[in-house]
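Quick question, first post here. What does this chain look like in 3D?
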Amino acid sequence: MDTIFAQATAKGKAGVAVIRISGPRAFFAAEQLAGRLPAPRMAGLRTLRTTDGDHLDEALVLVFPEGASFTGEAVVELHLHGSIAVLRAVERELGSLEGLRLAEPGEFTRRALENNRLDLAQVEGLADLVEAETEAQRRQAQLVFSGALGDRVENWRADLIRAAALLEVTIDFADEDVPVNVTPEVTDLVERTYRDLGAEISGSYVAERLRDGFEIAILGAPNAGKSTLLNALAGREAAITSKTAGTTRDIIEVRLDMDGIPVTVLDTAGLRSSDDEIEQIGVSRALSRAKNADMRIVLTEDGAIPSELRDLSIDLVIRSKVDLTSATEGLAISAQTGQGLARLTNTISETLEHKISHIGTATHKRHRDAMTLAVAHLETVLDLLPKNAPTEVLAEELRFAIRALDSLIGRVDVEDLLGEIFASFCLGK
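> Answer (accepted):
Ran it through. Tokens below.
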């Protein structure tokens, strides 16, 4: 296997930059530049030189032996001054050594997977952790990266393997009397796994929304104050505001961190009947996005809800422009003066926190698809067990369910997914 290297820190100037080297010739390569290496996991200050003896940089060198590194291979990290010129010079010198090459995107993490340092769900958790923008996203990604989903899968597999083993006993001793009826224990094991998977599938939808960000649609009649509210929440002029009704024609999106929860707020076109073709398109788009949003907020000056929303579930109805009216009942705000905004943001946060309380460990559609396939096979088992179906059929259905769970953490049938997954990683990962 080639020895690979790449910059593990962000591109551009910095105080410190790290180059990671991984593979069978990692120690050899580091010795060519730094001379005698420090003891494993001990940092040592070394002068890096070219093969011709030219000075490259002063660097901290860290050594990780095979089996005790991120990739599972021998790894050396060079902590350099973050000059672009220094990085290029060191990379150029490493590239000139026999058996070394620049890493491909995600190749360090891929080697960690291949060397059983991570399972596939952990790899996806690491990718989500790198992309995390809010505290809630960080916590969720860290949970997956720590192996929580893999642990759950192992527990489910253990129960299904036990159930399959019990059925296999009845097959092996088909011509003899099996001393114990295994059906009750098999049923209990399968039902328990079935329930757990169902709960995890339900929670995965919330987890996926947390990873991608919740969408909140602001709806209402023209000139109800939707754009002004969006600007107040964003803390900047994200949308054009005007006393002229119908200023907003298309959907304006602003991404926010709301108490650690990622949120995309949608300012939509005012809802009303109109002969203007463009305005009709704007209203149609507003209703379409609102239908798929995680939360729908209706702004109204007089308490009336536009008839266009009669088929939508509304989460919050807010009286707007209370600085110009005497409305006090319910949730009332003035986006101009800030009156009621703190209460509104607290209400939104509490609503989303309630959704997150039902969150699952699985965060990707791929996870959900694998679990859904396993559930389908378990449903077949639960349907056939009381009907005295052939034991071979039941055992085979359990093996299919186990195989579906194996694909979730990367044991089988995932080779075609790896290229797509690792393409999102940077070179240093």
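DSSP finds 13 helices and twelve strands in the chain.
The chain has three domains: 3-114, 125-209+364-409, 231-356.
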